[in-house]
Amino acid sequence: MLAEVLLLARKDLRIERRAKVALGQVAPLTLLIVVVFAFALDANAPLLEIGAGGLYWVAVLYGGTLLTQRAFEIETEGGNFDDFRMSPIKVHSLFLGKSLSLFIQICALELVLTPAVLLLYDVQVTDWLLLIAAGAAGAVAFSVCGVLWGVMAAGLRVRSTLLPLLLIPVLAPVLLAGSRAFETALGIRADAGWSWASLMFVIAAVHTVVGLAAFGFLLEEN
Amino acid sequence: MSTVVKFENVVAVAGSFPVLTGVDITVQEGEIVLLQGKNGAGKTSLLRACAGLIRINDGSAQVFGFDMRINRQAPRRYIGLLGHENNLYRDLWAIEHVEFRAVAGGGQRGDAAEALARVGLASRLWSVPISALSAGQRRKVAIASLIVNRPRLWLLDEPHSALDAASRADLNAILKEAAASGATVIFASHEGVLSEELSSRVVTLRGGQVVEDSSAR
Q1: Cβ–Cβ under 8 Å, residues A123 and A31
Q2: CB contact under 8 A, B91 and A4
Q3: Nearest-CA distance from B190 to chain A in Å?
Q4: B50 and B79 Cβ atoms separated by less than 8 Å
Q5: How far does A21 lie from chain B, in Å, by closest CA?
Q6: Interface pTM (ipTM) of the complex?
Q7: Do A15 and B105 make contact, defined as CB atoms within 8 angstroms?
Q8: What is the pLDDT of residues B122-151, one digit of tens each?
């Protein structure tokens, strides 16, 4: 199964490397959002500092949604989703392979956004380990949720508008937990940051289990 | 000779529209069956039903002995489907795409070059992004992607489309070879003489039913 997961993830990442959608379009766009927030709230620097965690995760949410759409767009280009459904790769491997490639892309996005937030919002990291753990947990949660809900929308003509509608409410708890964990990691609030990061891992784990169980059904019923 | 497809009074509905309205067809191993009929006759739906891509609502349907009403995923590992769309990854090179299909299907990466050579795609085009290839060249890559998996049942929808005369003849030779080695081919086509020359049997559909089933030769 691991070979299949890696095969699929490698294929997706190779396509992204050529198409340059993730780093060439999505990353600059989310970076722009962070910059726009900085301009919009610059007159109120304390507010910007307090909201840094939340603004960061809003940007990740937006970019993650775009990346999820792209992950399924490559399977549905030309209006044909049949080949993905006919794939001899096992259903669990399809789910995990797609999730892995999306996870790597979201991590890359976070690597671009994190220094931008630190620089533009003038915040300092007080707990790097928590910041990295929350970032990784968020990337896992976003990727497995994205693949689970992305396959549901993939076969539909209205997928470009339906996916954000489905995905954003589901990811709202991740957004909340990520914001709180980042606020602790940035020393903005003395809160239970690790509890929030743990909650993100739990959400990711739950969606992974649900995804493994439901992905095949959703793929078939699309 | 074993039975590959056995449909009895099969009814399939897409949304609220009946696409198959009582299809009876039995296809044996090694046959090359041409599906004929006007647009909307049910040719594509029958191919998709054989591939397990549409739900059977009534009747009895078996592919390789698997009951398609209970487990329509099971026979897919033996099936190669070429639809109207080529479904290629536009940003991959031709060779990368076929290698991916080969490995995903349990084959060897090295089979890809042989398959691309077999469909007559010039080797200088193997390392070119698929998006840069012509429609006929893309069709060849799609056909090579089927060849590498050595399907036991080929389901082809207008397989000759976009191919030039020489490539069409090549494709016919490939399909005849496959049938000679025990594979079964079911294809839908409007190509007339070219298709009838290839097929060992012609099935005509109308209104989602088989209305004529005859041997072409």
Answers
A1: no
A2: no
A3: 21
A4: yes
A5: 11
A6: 0.84
A7: no
A8: 888 889 999 999 999 999 999 999 999 899
